[in-house]
Amino acid sequence: MVKSVSEKAQEALKLSEEQFRRAVEDSPIPMIMQAEDGEVLHVSRSFTELTGYGVSDVPTFDNWVTKTVYDGAEAVRDHMHKLFEGHKRSINVSFTVRSHKYGIREWSFSASSPGTLSDGRRFIVGMAVDVTEQEEAEEALRKSEEQFREFITRSSGAVYLMSADWSVMRQLEGKDFIADTLHPNRTWLAKYILPNDRKPVLETIKHAIETKSMFEMEHRVPRVDGSIGWTWSRAVPLLDKSGAIVEWIGTAVDITARKKAEQILKRRLKNLEEVKERLEGGNTDLEEQTMTIERFAEQRRAAAVDQTTRTAFGDVRFLLLGMTSDTQLIREEVKNVIEGETRQRILDYLASMEETVGYIGRLLHDNVGAQKLSKE
Question: What is the reported pLDDT for 268?
């Protein structure tokens, strides 16, 4: 019996529908096929695995929306109705779904109406893409940028963002202390860290990454004016839900003035110690000087004694006066530019310096006084 053209066309249409059904069911991404009356015709195995529902569980599209869509159900229904009514050729909508396997997830759902079934009904094929991780990453980036901008506003020092492994400096606002970095930079180490400081900086970074602890270090940096300055750099890791490091946010404070003050103090203390050692340990020299003064005094009497004494101890007294003045200036500078434990440590140094100066002054006074009394 010879088949009519219409019968052949009908068989071809059914075969096409069967092939399409298999394509839907075998799809690696969640897919759903429904007729215009709401009947769910097919769902992909990945759809069932993700949501926990098969065709028997959600025989109609409305059943599927009610059971699966966690947030945005009415918007999904409205979009599908407009698609069937011909107001749209395709839709793309995002909504939250309940997944038996993965919990609450975010889907980007696309659908179109490619034609009609063999029974004359129009049908829609919808595909879903899980965008949960993407949206979480975008939200994390948005929050990170907000935190960074707020941190910049509150911080008086330079502020920077680093990648999880510190291979990329994502951004740095130098606050007129060091140069800005407005775009991701992989050569930040050469730009900001002096050659002799790179090894200890990298070692400190490695330890901070391994322990997920604060990076904290004092090191030299090139300042915007071309000079070499000092910074106290600190950075904390930002972690994701699993505890992995996402990025680092840090601040770099200009401590150049403090470092200069510390260097001046060290030099002054060293000078004082040397003078103290000479005065305490050099009794023989002092005795010889005293004997010389006594012999000279016998020849020149009382006036000569005063002149010789000034010659012997004038340089030391001048040094003491200079140190007293330096101490006062350094104390005022420290109070203006340094805070916290560092300021107290420097003030302690200054107190020690003043005590030593006073001690040396008393030694000189007693020595000269004794010589004058002996001649009287």
Answer: 78
Provide the pLDDT for residue 108: 83
pLDDT reported for residue 318: 53
pLDDT digits 0-9 by tens, 318-347? 555 656 666 666 666 656 656 666 667 667
What pLDDT does 163 receive? Answer: 94
Residue 308 CA to residue 84 CA, distance in Å, equals: 116
Average pLDDT over residues 274-289: 57
Whether pLDDT at 281 is above 60: no
